[in-house]
Amino acid sequence: MTKSPCDLLVHGASAVFSGEEVLEGDGLVIGRGKVLETGEASSLRECWNARSELDAACGVVAPGFVDAHVHPAFAEGRAGEFNLRSQGADYQEIAAAGGGILSSVRAVRGLSEEELSRKVADHFRRMRCHGTTACEAKSGYGLTVEEELKSLRAIAFAAEATGMEVFPTFLGAHAVPEEHRENPDDWIDELCDKGLPAVAESGLARAADVFIEGIAFNLDRSRRYLEKAKEVGLALRVHADQFEALGGVELAVELGAESVDHLEVLEDRGLEALALGTTFAGLLPAVPHFLGQESDAPARRLLAAGVRCFVATDFNPGSCPCPSLPEAAHFARRRLALTAEEALTAITSTAADSLGAGDRKGRLIPGHDADLVVLDLPDIDHFGYFLGENPVRTVVMGGVVQE
Ligand code: NIG
Ligand code: FE
Question: Is the distance from CB of 137 to CB of 70 less than 8 angstroms?
Fold first, then answer.
């Protein structure tokens, strides 16, 4: 039988996870950046002539991780605040005193576009070391129209420089900027009149996001911003119910948002809205860990109600300086009671589906992009079991083994 040529044969895995289930066999075949076939390597070898091989012995093969909630456009960390918090200050107090997000805004405004681009690329490289091959990426630390566009251009540059596949989101409504403190409506006006149309026109973002919270935007302002975002053709992603349930979840579902994330204080009415709608729930379990918050998103209840849930890092300098999805998955297992397979599904296929990219990302099935990780784990059940150790042995992006 003549064999067909292909680029890469992966073999010897102790398990291959498709993004939804454990597959039969220990290998797969890749050509032109796509998955061609999965199965037993010995049978695959009879049909395919591979230019090179990747030995995944004693490792778990899974789709490249998809981080669907990331704030990478920041300049520096906020370790000083971490010290204050260990002395008893809380995240909301620090924000109300002009620190928090606004201190990251001052840092971003102080950088040139080139400097910021290098920072974002550095953040993407750190994420990739932990297995992330595609991510959502929010602006939100510029908070003037120009500085936000600068941040989105920096994200685009960093995507190109690192090969990370990025789904960019405009987070112009992340916090009320210092200069609009007395009248937050002016900032919403500017976002609706100039910011959102400029972002849509530029093509630099596919979605818009808002932080609906007492320390950020109330429901009326958020509605105005989200309705305008929808009108200019942007998808919607929402931060809500992190500290206070203000009705942001119901608003997100009503407007057909792709996702509503955090949900640590989700109430029954929010859960009922999610159960009836199509909006994904974004679970960010490393955040309450880092903030010392006791409540968690009710993941088991959400799943039981049929709500599709992804797990993400929320990588950012204030509430979660964690670029690692395996670490977030550990917290998903420990705090949210997800099984290893549920956690893996939540950072691969479901995360990709939430970004409208499930037809090519987050699954190891024929025709999908050949993004995968080899994890140094004896079996799937060990995923999220170890902490403080990176399980990622090898990363493959678009069929290319990353050095
Ligand atoms: O998702 N909640 C709003 N935004 C981020 C925190 C940003 C920051 O503190 O810098 C979050 O937790
Ligand atoms: Fe966030």
Answer: yes
Nearest partner of 373 among 398, 389, 395, judged by Cα: 395
The pLDDT of residue 91 is above 80: yes
Provide the token pair at 131.
Answer: 């297995």
Q: Which pLDDT does position 348 carry in this prediction?
A: 99
pLDDT of 403 higher than 90: no
CA 65 from chain centre, in angstroms, equals: 9
> pTM value?
0.98
Q: Distance between terminal CA atoms of the chain? A: 35
CA dihedral 248, 252, 253, 255 (to 10 degrees): 130
Protein residues with CB under 6 Å of any ligand 1 atom: 71, 100-101, 104, 211, 239, 242, 287, 314, 316-319
Residue nearest atom 1 of ligand 1, based on CA coordinates: 314
The amino acid occupying position 333 is R
For residue 78, the ligand closest to its alpha carbon is 1
Strand (E) positions, 176-221? 207-212
User: DSSP secondary-structure letter at 61?
Assistant: E
The structure tokens listed for 101 are 């997000």
145-162 and 101-109 helices cross at what angle (nearest 10)? 80
Number of the ligand 1 atom closest to the C-alpha atom of 239: 2
| 113-129 and 145-162 helices, crossing angle to 10° | 50
| Burial profile 94-111: b = 16 or more Cβ within 10 angstroms, e = fewer | bbeeebbbbbbbebbbeb
Residue 385, both tokens: 């079991």
Query: 5: part of which helix (H) or strand (E)?
Result: strand 4-11
